[in-house]
Design a protein that fits this description.
Helices cover about 30% and strands about 20% of the residues. The chain has about 220 residues and is an alpha/beta fold. α3 links the parallel β3 and β4. α1 packs parallel to α5 and α3 runs parallel beside α4. The longest helix has 23 residues. The two termini are about 25 Å apart. The model has no long low-confidence stretch (mean pLDDT about 90). Keywords: Magnesium, Metal-binding. This is Putative 4-hydroxy-4-methyl-2-oxoglutarate aldolase. InterPro entries: RraA/RraA-like, RraA/RraA-like_sf.
Length: about 220
């Protein structure tokens, strides 16, 4: 997939809710949902290629948090795997300010964040397992950047596309992104037609039957 095509697919996915993208992936037997990760507000939304970061508990040497940030390209979604830890944070106010300044699309954390007010003031999309003030500095260390990470049994490669909104976050395999976007768009269209049909006087049961609602997630398997 060339850069222009990838940008087009990202734009298409950005216009879709994660619910429809998840349904499209279900129809293909693909698992990409990141259970337990939620936005700080319902307004946050982020879509872009993954920039993956892996942390581990710090050893004898002092660990650092956030030094990778200068290498993240604009439009990327940072995916941080801190093994789901909720006792130390791996994202704070300085990182939010820098990421927003650099045009980074958002951050998804398998762990927790802090300095929430800064993120809200910057309107920077942040998704995590929660919030906690205890610093990860000297408690965690960076072990890998731009390598495959696994969150909730979902393997995420740097080429994958991250989509996140009020319903949570998921990873779309880059090789199937156009296919998934097409199915999700059809799902959105079908659901809109069902609502329009009900508003025109049909029962919900009949509208769903006429428009194949119950087959939306399964017809492509």
């Amino acid at each position: 997939m060339n850069t222009t095509t990838e940008a087009s697919v990202i734009d298409r996915l950005a216009a879709l809710p994660t619910a429809s993208i998840s349904d499209a992936m279900d129809s293909l037997g693909l698992h990409g949902t990141l259970h337990g990760l939620a936005g700080l507000t319902y307004d946050f939304r982020a879509t872009g290629p993954a920039f993956t970061v892996q942390y581990a508990p710090a050893g004898k040497s002092r660990g650092s948090v956030g030094d990778f940030l200068d290498d993240v390209p604009p439009g990327a979604v940072i995916v941080i795997d801190n093994d789901g830890r909720t006792d130390v944070t791996v994202w704070g106010g300085i990182m939010t300010a820098v990421a927003a300044e650099h045009g980074i699309a958002g951050t998804v954390i398998n762990g927790v964040c802090r300095d929430i007010s800064t993120s809200l003031q910057q309107n920077y999309p942040l998704f995590s397992r929660g919030r906690f003030m205890r610093t990860g500095k000297d408690r965690v260390q960076l072990v890998a950047v731009q390598t495959e990470v696994t969150i909730n049994d979902v393997r995420i490669s740097p080429s994958d596309i991250i989509c996140a909104d009020a319903d949570g976050a998921l990873a779309v395999p880059q090789a199937r992104a156009a296919e998934i976007a097409g199915i999700a768009e059809r799902i959105e269209d079908t659901e809109a037609r069902i609502v329009a049909s009900v508003k025109s006087g049909a029962t919900l049961v009949q509208a769903r039957k006429d428009l194949g609602y119950h087959d939306l997630q399964w017809r492509n398997k």
